[in-house]
């Protein structure tokens, strides 16, 4: 199981991380996402957004634990990128930690950052459409 608290990002620029200070040992690219929804609902909407993307295989989805892991393969060469999410209860809402990383190569042309941004937008649309 993926653990944000022990995440050691590589020095290569082929990852993207959304987390708050203290969530991971290193610096994130931006803060965790926040929603006024319970963690199970947020991670279920994340699962739906991930499954709507092409070439995605979900490896782990545990709504009770608030965790999600999947692999999305690149269109041309089918390189695998790992995507992890963890929904954490915070007050009356949820913080969503996200990490996307290429398994192969040293650069990604910004693919992982763009993926997290695109999937985050899709997640917001799903939650807003549900009355958020």
From TrEMBL:
Residues 1-24 are annotated as: Disordered. It comes from the Bacteria. This is Uncharacterized protein (DUF1499 family). It comes from Parvularcula dongshanensis.
């Amino acid at each position: 199981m993926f653990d944000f608290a022990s995440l050691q990002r590589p020095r290569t620029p082929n990852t993207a991380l959304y987390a708050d200070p203290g969530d991971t040992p290193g610096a994130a690219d931006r803060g965790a996402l926040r929603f006024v929804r319970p963690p199970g609902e947020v991670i279920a909407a994340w699962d739906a957004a991930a499954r709507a993307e092409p070439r995605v295989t979900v490896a782990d989805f545990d709504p009770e634990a608030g965790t999600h892991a999947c692999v999305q393969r690149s269109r041309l060469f089918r390189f695998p990128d790992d995507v992890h999410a963890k929904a954490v209860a915070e007050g009356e809402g949820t913080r969503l930690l996200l990490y996307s990383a290429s398994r192969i190569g040293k650069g990604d042309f910004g693919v992982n950052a763009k993926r997290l941004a695109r999937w985050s937008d899709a997640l917001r649309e799903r939650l807003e459409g549900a009355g958020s």
